[in-house]
Specification:
Layout (H helix, E strand, L loop, with lengths): L2 H4 L6 E4 L3 H12 L4 E4 L7 H6 L2 E5 L8 E3 L3 E3 L2 H5 L4 E4 L6 H8 L8 E4 L6 H11 L7 E5 L4 E7 L2 E7 L3 E6 L4 H8 L6 E3 L3 H6 L3 H4 L1 H6 L1 H7 L5 H5 L2 H20 L7 H9 L6 H6 L16 H4 L1 H16 L4 H14 L3 H4 L13 H10 L11
Parallel strand pairs: 1-2, 1-6, 2-5, 3-10, 6-7, 7-8, 11-12
Antiparallel strand pairs: 3-4, 8-11, 9-10
Helix pairs in contact: 5-6, 13-17, 17-18
């Protein structure tokens, strides 16, 4: 099948990942009337869904979503079973797991399949597509990434999730960029909130989680450990002083984008676009976002806000900055502190210009890569 044939009927979704975002997306899609196939690498998170017979979606009053008990057509740890009959693979796992999902999916993907990373973090679509190419995939598969997760959500109990916020607008871009309209059209029956992004480098650099997650966790490490996260993460954890650090990091991210010729939204602009939250400063805009109230902090600092967002968000931004001659001292300081806290080499673990396939490329060549995509070397001509 091709993306255009999906328009004639409801698409079938495969959701890869049974964490906060994956369970929420699977439940929401099911309650909207779509067939959902839920994949997870391990059985542990699938078993409660099977016992319950589905997923309960709880929705806060300020969210314009339907809650209730959602049926899930298939729950499986076998990728071939999950993708059988599916049109769109929604990858909703920590960015550290993108490579493993790509490796598992490569033998099962067929021409016409669409893969969307929710979100790609920084360089996700480039890395995912490169894994497929290295695996020898020749099928016509589109890989895309969302700029951020569309839900603010948490697992509240076994096979039960709660939605605190639902974003009004989320940019989405495909690799290659000219396939973005096909992806938007394919998922439009379910999500009108996804809008065309310029390209995957732009969605990657507009990764606001890079600003809101690692620094807030690092700067609140003592409070997290002493209270086991007993405070509102965004509202209590981001003071005026903390917000100034976030603004410095944000300015570096925007500068890296500008060096590539892209205008990146500031974090304050993004809050207004995604949530309608406005303010004269970043601190004020965060306080104006009702979706952030009630979201508790992590119970420990050994959390994906560091071990995912540092290597998969901050490291690639700083790596691009190094190559482009854009200093990123604030971002580098948070990377260093996170490495000291966890005794890990996040530079070695993280996405760099090398793993994103853009090392040594000129700005023109990088832009050409995201517009035309990565491809395997052409076969040798006979004769």
């Amino acid at each position: 099948m091709t993306p255009t044939t999906i328009d004639e009927r409801k698409p079938v979704f495969c959701v890869a990942g049974a964490g906060n975002g994956g369970l929420t997306m699977a439940a929401h899609l099911s309650l909207m009337g779509f067939e959902v196939r839920l994949y997870n690498r391990g059985e542990e998170r699938l078993e409660p869904v099977r016992r319950r017979g589905g997923i309960e979606l709880l929705v806060r009053e300020n969210c314009n979503l339907q809650g209730g008990e959602a049926d899930i057509a298939v729950t499986t740890t076998r990728m071939e079973e999950a993708l059988d009959g599916a049109d769109v693979l929604m990858v909703v796992v920590p960015a550290n797991g993108h490579r493993a999902i790509a490796q598992a999916a490569a033998p099962c993907l067929r021409s016409g399949h669409i893969v969307i990373l929710h979100p790609g973090r920084t360089g996700g679509a480039l890395e995912f597509h490169n894994v497929l190419v290295q695996a020898g995939l020749s099928a016509d598969v589109i890989v895309a990434e969302a700029q951020t997760l569309i839900y603010a959500c948490r697992v509240s109990n076994l096979a039960q999730v709660q939605v605190f916020g639902f974003k009004n607008t989320v940019p989405l871009a495909a690799l290659p960029a000219h396939s973005t309209p096909d992806v938007i059209r394919a998922i439009r029956p379910a999500y009108r909130e996804f809008v065309p992004g310029d390209n995957v480098m732009k969605t990657s650099l507009d990764n606001i989680g890079a600003i809101f997650h690692p620094a807030v966790t690092v700067l609140n490490c003592s409070r997290i450990e002493s209270t086991r996260g007993d405070f509102d993460y965004y509202i209590d954890g981001i003071s005026r002083s903390t917000a100034l650090v976030l603004e410095a990091m944000d300015a570096e991210r925007v500068a890296v984008g500008a060096a590539l010729g892209f205008h990146c939204l500031s974090a304050r602009e993004w809050l207004y676009m995604a949530y309608g939250a406005a303010g004269r400063t970043l601190f004020d805009a965060i306080r104006a976002n009702q979706g952030y109230y009630g979201i508790r902090a992590p119970m420990q600092v050994d959390h994906r806000y560091i071990h995912e967002d540092v290597p998969m968000s901050l490291v690639p931004i700083a790596s691009l900055g190094d190559m482009l001659g854009v200093p990123c001292p604030a971002i580098r300081s948070i990377i260093t502190l996170a490495e000291l806290m966890h005794n890990r080499d996040y530079w070695a673990e993280g996405r760099t210009v090398e793993s994103m396939g853009v090392s040594g490329k000129s700005v023109r060549e990088i832009r050409q890569t995201v517009l035309e995509g990565l491809s395997a070397p052409p076969p040798a001509r006979k004769g």
